[in-house]
Amino acid sequence: MKRMGIGLQMYTLRAETATDFTGTLHKVAALGYEGVEFAGYGGLSPEQLKSLLEELQLKSIGSHVSIHDLKEKLDEIVEMNVAIGSSYVVCPFLNEEQRSEGALPDTVSVFTKASHELGKHGIRFGYHNHAFELTETIGGERLFDRLFALMEPEECVVEMDVCWVHHGGQDPLEYIRKYAGRVPLIHLKDMRTLEDGQAQTVELGQGEIDLQAVISTAGEAGAEWLIVEQDHCQNPPLQSVETSIRWLQANYIN
Q1: Are 126 and 111 in contact (CB under 8 A)?
Q2: Of 213, 141, 140, 201, nearest to 172 (Cα)?
Q3: Cα separation of 32 and 79, whole Å?
Q4: What are the distances in angstroms from CA 223 to CA 100, 179, 184, 188, 214?
Q5: Terminal-residue alpha carbon distance, the chain
Q6: 173 and 183 Cβ atoms separated by less than 8 Å
Q7: 169 close to 154: Cβ distance less than 8 angstroms
């Protein structure tokens, strides 16, 4: 089984990139991350970011892009992600209006157009889940399954966030298997359920997710990248992402 790449969703370091985008990328590369998934580009031009990634020998896995920007800035998104060599562009969230039963056809239309334009350049489009896609239903079907059923696998891949599948009351292993062959990107995230029922995201190996089983199942399902993301860190974020990659080095990479 081919080893999956180890990436970082840069949203985890949003405070750091806001003040020093280039320096933060240098630190991510020094920690041993092989790729990054962007949530903004630090004001760099496509050529500048391409050069920086080449210098750091970091792969651009792809970018998280809002549905607003998919509609209004698609040409810019295509230009940037072609330049930096991204394989994926992913929509990370839908608000209540965008995911309602009445609005879902329009949302899918935006996704389909973006997918087709990106596909001309060899970039695949995907969607990243939170918990609500597992708890909300449309016509008796979970929103997660309904959304992906409305698009062909070649039009929209699954970026599965196992933390939020778990917090949504479903088994991440079952969902990875269900979408085998369509789930190239796994957001490998750990969490604890607090007394009030809320999810607290924690460093890998510090929570309740069976990460070893997730990694094994993801590999069997054809995943290409394990992407570390921690929505909120209890420790300084750079320390948290270092703790997480050290866990991966001890439990997977080596």
Answers
A1: no
A2: 213
A3: 28
A4: 29, 10, 4, 12, 11
A5: 15
A6: no
A7: no
Query: How far apart are alpha carbons 252 and 126 in whole angstroms?
Result: 25
Burial 14-45 (b: 16+ CB within 10 A, else e): eebbeeebeebbebbbeeebbbbbbbebbebe
How confident is the model over 185-204, as pLDDT tens digits?
Answer: 999 999 999 999 999 999 99
- Report helix, strand or coil for 243: helix
Please name the helix (run of DSSP H) or strand (run of DSSP E) that holds residue 111, with its range, or none. Answer: helix 104-119
**pLDDT at 167 exceeding the cut of 90:** yes
Residue showing tokens 């969490």 = 191
Chain segment 52-76, per-residue pLDDT in tens? 999 999 999 999 999 999 999 999 9
Q: Which residue has tokens 């334009």?
A: 117
Q: CA nearest 12: which of 248, 245, 251?
A: 245
Length in residues, the chain: 254
Phi then psi for 153, rounded to 5 degrees?
-55, -35
Q: How far apart, in whole angstroms, are the C-alpha atoms of residue 85 and residue 172? A: 29
Cα(68)–Cα(61) distance, integer angstroms: 21
Specify the pLDDT at position 188.
Answer: 98
